[in-house]
């Protein structure tokens, strides 16, 4: 199984600050034939179901604010929120869909100071 | 608007069965793979099973193979999860998700509690 490791497990920032969180996979998620990284980021707000933010490591879903930026390739990925807002309070999960079993990281909990 | 509405959860004793349903609307159900993803209380997300758009292929995590069966009825735009021989470790909120590579839409979830 591909193991997804997210760091930090939690982070507290003030509104307006920039935050970055990391996701590392135990094997490459880059498929050589199409040059795509099979990595997604989800946001789960308290009491809600997860919401897809970013697919293919860096493609924002429709309606997702442009302050959410996905980057990285291979085994190392980053989610950056350029200017955190109060409504970004949530747990953020990365997920690999390169191979079954599809696996998620343990999440980064974002708290607003 | 894509909507996924799960039902069928509840409290069940270990070893017993339960069947979850997910009613889909707002998209052409028969064009998409579908999946179940679960989340144990205060824990992270765990993929359970996926079914192809036409039901011809199914995939399961090892811990549920032989106990859970994912199926679909494209005429009714409904996804199912038959859960047999339930264990305490199956206790979780179960989400239905459209598996558009990746999981691009999620339902609100249904709670399954396995306890005597």
How do you describe this structure in short?
The complex is a heterodimer of chains A (113) and B (116). Chain A is mainly β and 113 residues long.
List the SSEs and their pairings.
The complex is a heterodimer of chains A (113) and B (116).
Chain A: E1 4-7, E2 10-13, E3 19-25, E4 30-31, E5 36-37, E6 39-44, E7 51-55, E8 59-60, E9 68-73, E10 76-81, E11 90-96, E12 103-104, E13 108-112
Parallel strand pairs in A: 2-13
Antiparallel strand pairs in A: 1-3, 3-10, 4-5, 6-7, 6-11, 7-8, 9-10, 11-12, 11-13
Chain B: E1 3-7, E2 10-12, E3 18-25, E4 33-39, E5 45-51, E6 58-60, E7 68-73, E8 78-83, E9 92-99, E10 103-106, E11 110-114
Your description of this structure?
The complex is a heterodimer of chains A (113) and B (116). Chain A has 113 residues and is mainly beta. Chain A contains no helices and 13 strands. In chain A, the strands form 3 sheets. In chain A, strands 2, 6, 7, 8, 11, 12 and 13 form a 7-stranded mixed β-sheet that branches. In chain A, strands 1-3-10-9 form a 4-stranded antiparallel β-sheet, with no helix packed on it. Chain A is globular, with a radius of gyration of 13 Å. The termini of chain A are far apart. In chain A, 36% of the residues are buried. The mean pLDDT of chain A is 97. By secondary structure, chain B is mainly beta. Chain B is built from no helices and 11 strands. Chain B has strands at residues 3-7, 10-12, 18-25, 33-39, 45-51, 58-60, 68-73, 78-83, 92-99, 103-106, 110-114. In chain B, the strands form 2 sheets. In chain B, strands 2, 4, 5, 6, 9, 10 and 11 form a 7-stranded mixed β-sheet that branches. In chain B, strands 1-3-8-7 form a 4-stranded antiparallel β-sheet, with no helix packed on it. Chain B starts with a strand and ends with a strand. The mean pLDDT of chain B is 97. Classes of the chains: A mainly beta (113), B mainly beta (116). Chain A binds chain B through residues 38, 40, 42, 44, 49-52, 55, 61, 93, 95, 97, 100-107, and chain B through 37, 44-47, 50, 59, 61-62, 95, 101-109.
